[in-house]
Amino acid sequence: MEQLKQRILTEGRVKSGNVLKVDSFLNHQMDIHLFDEMGKAFKERYKEDEITKIVTIEASGIGIACIVARHFNVPVVFAKKSESRNLDGDLYTSPIYSFTHQKEYMVRVSKKFLSAEDKVLVIDDFLANGKALIGLLDIIKQSGATLVGAGIAIEKGFQGGGDALREQGIRIESLAIIDEMGEDFIKFRD
């Protein structure tokens, strides 16, 4: 998606440790117009699929997932990273390791919001090594729901998570795939 790539090039900053900072438009301050264009792009890529739920992980994926869900006219379910008194009943759980935060979380989804009847599209802001997506896929599998695919805003292709998951037969549609990046350059996959 050219509009997203241009924003990455003009506003993104590469920090040490392969961290791409895009907080001015994606995951701190959110450009809702850009999110709407991303929602249209995901709807176009998955227009032939019957999606009943959008699933994401707390917190940065929620904004994008909500706008995408509007295009599919379905609810969003997000996996919570922390225990809460308002999370009651039976839960699906899975451990995930966050590349950004360099720590493991146990993510949780209430069983009442995801079932075997659902056809799920996972939406997230980033895909690096694939650990968050693997955790969400585990929860979807536990529920018996059908995974349709994953929509990713920015994939760090050089970290290999997306390619490894595609090799397992998982459909991943990324709007921008970065093959290389450094302090003063970002190279996208064609």
UniProtKB/TrEMBL annotation:
InterPro entries: PRTase-like (IPR029057), PRTase_dom (IPR000836), Pur/Pyrimidine_PRTase (IPR050118), Xanthine_PRibTrfase (IPR010079). Pathway: Purine metabolism; XMP biosynthesis via salvage pathway; XMP from xanthine: step 1/1. Pfam families: Pribosyltran. GO terms for biological process: purine ribonucleoside salvage; xanthine metabolic process; XMP salvage. The keyword Cytoplasm applies. Its EC number is 2.4.2.22. It catalyses: XMP + diphosphate = xanthine + 5-phospho-alpha-D-ribose 1-diphosphate. Keywords: Cytoplasm, Glycosyltransferase, Purine salvage, Transferase. Residues 35-157 form the Phosphoribosyltransferase domain. It is found in: Cytoplasm. The keyword Nucleus does not apply. GO terms for molecular function: xanthine phosphoribosyltransferase activity. 5-phospho-alpha-D-ribose 1-diphosphate binds at residues 128-132. Signal peptide: none annotated. It is an enzyme of class 2 (transferase). GO terms for cellular component: cytoplasm. Coiled coil: none annotated. Xanthine binds at residues 20, 27, 156. Gene3D superfamilies: 3.40.50.2020. Converts the preformed base xanthine, a product of nucleic acid breakdown, to xanthosine 5'-monophosphate (XMP), so it can be reused for RNA or DNA synthesis. Belongs to the purine/pyrimidine phosphoribosyltransferase family. Xpt subfamily. Homodimer. NCBIfam families: PRK09219.1, XPRTase. This is Xanthine phosphoribosyltransferase. It comes from Zhenhengia yiwuensis.
